[in-house]
Each structure stands twice: as structure tokens, then as C-alpha cells.
């Protein structure tokens, strides 16, 4: 379908909890196609619907040759062991900070036929599942940073050329998706 513009830090859609997908018709199929096309760009691991201006519970992933999407995802399991590595976000371009996440994660949701979907991952895939699910709750990875690192990140953001740039118009409407 289309590679969509990414909403940037400061856009309210990124901090607003998303509505569940309730209509699995053509508009949802178009949204999923856009999510998959947009995440397929080089260097992208995951993309949540609010990052393209749509406030519904949907995300796509593209990690180590695994590509897909989940509608109405919920984190079902997180391992007790952790990974602490650099994490970034398409909505906070060019900045990476150490972020603690579970080493393994399981997400449960549905597909376009409203059939159950389970996605399991470890390492980068687990990080992606947690990161994208956070987006759907209106949480950015910056919210998970240690206090000192978060202050540094916010200072760095204020120095970015993209900070304070206008957002790309009103979000497209998807009646019946939420």
C-alpha cells in the first residue's frame, strides 16, 4: 500500500493509549499493509500504529528475517532474566539509550481474520515486542530509562533539528477501527 510518515516525539498520538481493533474489514487490511510496507524500510525492526498517526492496537515487526503483524496485542509472558542494551525508536530518530527489557517475551493477539496469533521472541525480537506493545499503551522507551539517563535523553532531544517540527497534519481517520 504505502510507506507512511513517522510521527515524532512531541506528537500527542504517541502518548495516548490506543483503542482496540474491532473492525477487521478493508480499512484494517489497508492499515496492516501500510504497517508492513513502512517497517520493511532498511534499519527498521518494529512499527506501532500510533507512529503513523493511527490510535489503534496494531503493530508490525521485521526482525532477523521474521516479518509480521499483530492486532490487539498483549504481553502474555516476560522472562525474569533481563537484557540491558541500546534501544532506539523511529519516533525519536538518531538517539539510542541503554534500556532494560526482559530477555524473552510472548505477545498474544489476533490477525486480520480475528484468529489468535502468538509471537515469541528473545533478544532483539523480545525487545521489539515489548517496545511496540508499550507504544500502544502510550509509553515511549524514554519512559523506561533510568532517571539520570532520561534527563540526558530529554536534553539531547531538545538539541535535535527535528525537535519542535510540526507534525504531518491530522491523523488519518479509520472509522470502525476503534
UniProtKB/TrEMBL annotation:
Active site annotation, chain numbering: 132
Cofactor note: Binds 1 Fe(2+) ion.
Cofactor list: Fe(2+)
UniProt-listed Enzyme Commission number(s): 3.5.1.88
Biological processes, Gene Ontology terms: translation
Reaction(s) catalysed (UniProt annotation): N-terminal N-formyl-L-methionyl-[peptide] + H2O = N-terminal L-methionyl-[peptide] + formate
This protein's name: Peptide deformylase
Native species: Allonocardiopsis opalescens
Upper lineage: Bacteria, Bacillati, Actinomycetota, Actinomycetes, Streptosporangiales
Amino acid at each position: 500500500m504505502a510507506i507512511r510518515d513517522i510521527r515524532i516525539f512531541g506528537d500527542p498520538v504517541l502518548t495516548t493509549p490506543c483503542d482496540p481493533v474491532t473492525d477487521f474489514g478493508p480499512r484494517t487490511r489497508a492499515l496492516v499493509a501500510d504497517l508492513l510496507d513502512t517497517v520493511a524500510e532498511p534499519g527498521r525492526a518494529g512499527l506501532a500504529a500510533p507512529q503513523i498517526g493511527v490510535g489503534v492496537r496494531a503493530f508490525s515487526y521485521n526482525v532477523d528475517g521474521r516479518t509480521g503483524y499483530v492486532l490487539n496485542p498483549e504481553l502474555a509472558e516476560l522472562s525474569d532474566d533481563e537484557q540491558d542494551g541500546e534501544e532506539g525508536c523511529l519516533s525519536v530518530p538518531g538517539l539510542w539509550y541503554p534500556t532494560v527489557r526482559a530477555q524473552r517475551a510472548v505477545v498474544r493477539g489476533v490477525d486480520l481474520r480475528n484468529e489468535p496469533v502468538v509471537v515469541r521472541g528473545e533478544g532483539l525480537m523480545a525487545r521489539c515486542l515489548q517496545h511496540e506493545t508499550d507504544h500502544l499503551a502510550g509509553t515511549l522507551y524514554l519512559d523506561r530509562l533510568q532517571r539520570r539517563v532520561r534527563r540526558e535523553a530529554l536534553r539531547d532531544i531538545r538539541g535535535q533539528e527535528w525537535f519542535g517540527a510540526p507534525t504531518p497534519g491530522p491523523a488519518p481517520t479509520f472509522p470502525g477501527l476503534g
